[in-house]
Amino acid sequence: MISKSICRILLVAAFATLSGGLLSAGTVFTLSATLADSSTVSGALEIDTITGTLDAASLYVQDDPSDVFSNIFQQTPVPGPAYFIFTTSAANPTSTVPSLLLLLPDSLVGYNGGPIFDINFNDVNGTIGLDSGSITPVPSGVPEPASFFTFLAGLAAIGVLTRKAVSRRA
Predict the structure, then answer these.
(1) Is residue 81 within 8 Å of 104, Cβ to Cβ?
(2) Domain residue spans in the chain?
């Protein structure tokens, strides 16, 4: 039979796997916005919803899909409304042209998507503001087999410990 210490190790591993999945920090969101001139901004953001920081971005403006706004030039400290400036990899490190300015109404701690408060596209021709937009979470995928196996092993350990405890009382 399985020893009590092995059951406890499996139980701890299963709990760690389960809690890691529930508290995963990096959540991917999609951004979709229409600017005042009818051009669009779209792409993905990876947000650490525990610390309230933006970890990665990949945003595109419809008029120029060759420019990927992936450099996070500036982001506001937590707490407070979330404010970000993104530049392209081709931009001068000290310049914010071309750039995207994104403003969300709330902090990113516990963020689960919602409307965009403001977004501006800045280039050599000027600034174009937001008409409408939102950020939505991307549904998480199916757990990897190793995590699922560890979770099932932990459940089996709980069953074994419970069965042993019941048989001792009888």
Answers:
(1) yes
(2) 4-22+143-169, 26-137
Tally of CB atoms within 10 A around 169? 6
DSSP secondary structure string for all residues of the chain? ---HHHHHHHHHHHHHHHHHHHT-SEEEEEEEEEETTS-EEEEEEEEETTTTEEEEEEEEETTEEEEEEEEEEEEPPSSSSEEEEEEETTS-TT--SSEEEEEESS-STT---EE-SEEEEEETTEEE-EEEEEEEEPPP-PPPHHHHHHHHHHHHHHHHHHHHHHHHH-
Mean pLDDT, range 140-157, rounded to an integer: 69
Residue 90's CB is within 10 A of a number of other CB atoms, namely 10
Query: What single-letter amino acid sits at 80?
Result: G
Confidence (pLDDT) at 63: 62
Among 45, 52, 7, 3, which residue's Cα sits nearest to residue 25? 52
pLDDT at 62 over 70: yes
Cα angle for residues 90, 37, 107 (degrees, 5° grid):
65
Strands 64-75, 53-61: parallel, antiparallel or unpaired by DSSP? antiparallel
| Euclidean distance between CA atoms 113 and 62, whole angstroms | 22
Question: What count of residues does the chain have?
Answer: 170
pTM of the entire structure? 0.62
